[in-house]
């Protein structure tokens, strides 16, 4: 049996007929549809070009008349309309999007939505409601106090202004349509109003879908036909049903549900039944099992074989299974439900018995049971309240009807649930709607926890929290969603429970709330009733609390800013260390560059003279060698010394070529130039750049800009060289600042500069 609901198909009531032409035209006008676009709209919905040209000719190009005629042809399904798409509100909205009118499409679907279409159709009969229903509509935000008084004056008939206001709210939020139908079903309203709610849900496609044909159903059931005689004991099961009638009153004594599984109800989701998308993650409401065994199995690494031979009666440990993912759980749940369905059909046999159990043991399903006619329809009600980690409904079924073939399947799946919950942290499920059902506020529990380390918390922590607060009632509670509230800085857990258990939930939570305050509880709401709130009720205390929260937020922002500054300082220190290391590596070169040009030239001349003298000596030695062979060793030694001197001379000449010419070497310069206007040597550039990077109190604007720039050290060096080359005054001011610092011996000095 397929578990995932199909998208809502086009039903007969969705199709638009010719008598709804004025409604469609009115919706387009209210949505600001430009009539001149009628031709493009006609082509998009499937009308032929020849048909549209005929319309234009017959109406003399009047866009309003042409639009009316175009829509008439569309509703009449002429040309290719049926092939492109049947005339529905959705098809009209899609056509408007294709011609670039997305805003108009959104407004049209809001005004002419099928839900509104059905709603208006049914409420034309002057729907009568009760005082209880009126109060629930108010608490759910569907009507106001002013509208309550108007409904009471009309004899509790929902008509006129209150009906219009309700229609506007439903048009803004389609989930309110399902909430409205839910309220009619679970509140004390006349039978006609409940029938209206069922018809509304069915026609809008949110009630029991049409069964999908499955050819293998009979073959799946046939192996279990030998168990059918056991259904003869159905009359005996009826004798136990009166006990389940008291289930709503005895829920506070649920610890003994293990001995009386027949009184355990199915999962506790709301009465609303919208179409079910692929099954989402949902924390299980099953009793938590000891987690040590499952956790240890998962965390134990694969054992390595040893040299010792294990005993014959022992087997080597198997590697731990990989962590379960959400997709794995969906697959396992689908397999479980496919296997359980034929077992349920064969074991119970009589559908009336099955529906009787659901009606008595699961009161929250009671309003939805009358339309069900088959096992498949009834089990889909249970499926809508079953999630990947919540299978209490099927657990109660297999226990109640003693399905020996079904118990091992459920046991095995619940073991997988325990393993999944112990592995899955909350940060992996934030924002996921575990149950995609429209739930009333009166059936919602909100728990806000101050868990900043929520990424270390698992779904097991949520299950234990639920059990601590609600005791034995925790099996009736299902987790809907978990999300992080940025404003309050809390992790919010939304739960769902059957409305008839409200009193029991309130009493139990009030009794146990003190046990979870120390765990970081910030807020606890059961329905509309606040159980605990960290914000004081007193006005003065509340103001103090708000001020405290504001200060805490500011402190948090400052901590973030300080952290960013620390990271920037650390980065600059690393760059400074790299620069120092670079300077140390080039220390020998810097020392050599510090030798004056005259002295360096003198060294070169001396080396040349020495080489020439050595050459003369070598020539003399060669002559002596010819005369006396004993001096050969002295000659080789002298040649080696000459080679060393030549190598050093070549190095000095290379350095002289690389070094920029100095004013002292210009032979044609008659007078000595100003020292502050001299060209900067390589050595001086390195010294000045190091001085600029290490001394922060230099009072030179151009140098200040380079110091405060966020560029890298290499980029700053390029900026420095460019600045001093283009602006000699900056170079002179920097030289003066360094000179003053060297004289005073202080840590830094300032010099005025441009």
TrEMBL record:
Compositionally biased spans, kind Pro residues: 274-290
Under the heading InterPro entries, the entry gives: DEATH-like_dom_sf (IPR011029), Death_dom (IPR000488)
Region listing for Disordered, in residue ranges: 210-327, 651-680
Q: Return the Basic and acidic residues bias intervals.
A: 665-679
Q: Which GO terms describe its biological process?
A: signal transduction
UniProt biased composition (Acidic residues): 211-223
Residues of the Death domain: 37-112
Bias-annotated ranges (Low complexity): 291-311
The transmembrane segments are: none
CDD domains in the cross-refs? Death
What protein name does the entry list?
Answer: Death domain-containing protein
